[in-house]
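in:
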């Protein structure tokens, strides 16, 4: 489907101008660029599919923003261009830099606002106003957690989890949630069919809860491997192309992936049963990953648009998890997740290395993870709690001091993912300090840069 953009207008700019481009989902690059810079784009086809909507072909010589774009004109103003309904639609905004001006266009209804503020403060103002306009409830702080992923990946087994659970208690670390990540399930989509390593996931959850900790689990609810039981036995539950074939939803875990159509009544009942089963085991923290698969273009049972279908599926999880449960979204369409998730990943994955693969800021690395998170800091505590990805501070993590400082500066979710008994003195002290700060509600200045700028401007006037 070709993209249809309608002109919005032009903004006069000086060479000092800056532009904020917002990416589609958690892993998509988001950044404030200088006028002469080109926006970063994923290098690999895999990451291009993950980072952009299927009908999107963003160029490297135009800025292509999802839901909200900002232009700081270099003359003292920031121009906010945003969807009229940023949390329930997915409007794309394009900015082409010309000599002395920026040409704007969009593929849906937008609202514009000009503020006499720097770009970061103006984006904070927009986020606050959008949250109030949507009637968003007050946000809960993210619980501190330990996640199995960055030490064990999908090779984790119950003994690994129990070892770290015992270490948390032996060291008296302020960790609330112990979260089992990928590896417990037999296949992507077959969440209640255990892998050979996890014959009794319910029993493991019970052991976590019995120690007084909260139990968490990972799931990719909109994805299924093409060879999964789900996909092979229920092909009518999949998002489809006009020719009837399932829509290709990417390739990961050495498998082709398809998207589950949660507007189908039977698929909806299937997901409700899975989440209810988790909750029945004692799980009250869910890390829902690769969520962008739920907003992929294709034909669905309900005939609804992809964003409505996505929010419908996420609402199913939210309702089954219950009001006291905590929902972390990852790989998620960012603005369409607002109001449904408690916390949201705001960048690509981190890793023990610094440089992204082939310069691809969608690939795991510390640089990739910082790239999106810093630009989305204005959303933290307003639209959701920002998750900068896990705190990893083992001795094999390169530039671990810089990564820990980034997690601390985010002042959002703190999730340890080291093998805790192997941490050296610095790693353990740093983990304890950041976990304690998050538990205490991140003590420090309470005035945001947006509020400080407004206060200063009011004093002058």
């Amino acid at each position: 489907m070709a993209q249809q953009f309608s002109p919005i207008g032009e903004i006069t700019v000086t060479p000092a101008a800056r532009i904020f481009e917002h990416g589609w989902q958690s892993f998509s690059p988001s950044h404030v660029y200088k006028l002469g810079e080109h926006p970063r784009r994923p290098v690999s086809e895999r990451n291009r599919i993950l980072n952009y909507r299927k009908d999107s072909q963003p160029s490297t010589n135009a800025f292509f923003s999802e839901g909200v774009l900002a232009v700081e004109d270099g003359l003292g103003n920031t121009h906010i261009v945003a969807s009229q309904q940023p949390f329930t639609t997915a409007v794309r905004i394009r900015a082409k830099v010309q000599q002395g001006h920026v040409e704007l266009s969009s593929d849906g209804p937008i609202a514009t606002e000009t503020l006499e503020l720097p770009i970061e403060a103006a984006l904070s103002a927009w986020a606050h106003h959008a949250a109030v306009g949507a009637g968003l409830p007050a946000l809960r702080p993210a619980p501190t957690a330990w996640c199995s992923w960055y030490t064990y990946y999908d090779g984790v087994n119950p003994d690994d989890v129990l070892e770290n659970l015992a270490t948390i208690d032996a060291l008296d670390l302020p960790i609330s949630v112990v979260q089992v990540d990928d590896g417990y399930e037999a296949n992507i989509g077959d969440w209640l069919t255990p892998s050979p390593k996890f014959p009794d996931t319910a029993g493991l959850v019970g052991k976590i809860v019995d120690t007084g900790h909260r139990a968490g689990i990972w799931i990719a609810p909109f994805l299924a491997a093409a060879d999964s039981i789900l996909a092979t036995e229920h092909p009518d539950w999949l998002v489809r192309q006009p020719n009837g074939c399932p829509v290709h939803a990417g390739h990961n875990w050495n498998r082709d992936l398809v998207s589950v159509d949660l507007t189908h009544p039977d698929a909806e009942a299937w997901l409700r049963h899975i989440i209810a089963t988790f909750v029945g085991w004692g799980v009250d923290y869910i890390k829902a990953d690769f969520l962008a698969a739920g907003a992929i273009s294709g034909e669905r049972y309900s005939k609804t648009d992809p964003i409505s279908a996505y929010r419908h599926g996420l609402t199913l999880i939210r309702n089954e998890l219950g009001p006291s449960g905590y929902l972390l979204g990852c790989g998620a369409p960012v603005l369409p997740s607002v109001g449904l998730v408690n916390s949201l990943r705001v960048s690509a994955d981190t890793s023990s290395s610094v440089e992204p693969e082939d310069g691809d800021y969608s690939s795991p690395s510390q640089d990739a993870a910082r790239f999106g998170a810093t630009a989305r800091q204005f959303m933290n505590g307003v639209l959701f709690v920002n998750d900068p990805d896990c705190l990893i501070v083992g001795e094999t993590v390169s530039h671990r001091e810089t990564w820990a400082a980034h997690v601390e500066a985010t002042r959002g979710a703190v999730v340890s993912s080291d093998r805790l008994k192997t941490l050296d003195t610095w790693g353990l002290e740093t983990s304890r300090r950041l976990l304690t700060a998050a538990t205490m509600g991140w003590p420090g200045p309470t005035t945001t840069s947006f509020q400080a700028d407004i206060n200063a401007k009011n004093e002058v006037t």
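note: The longest helix spans residues 265-281.
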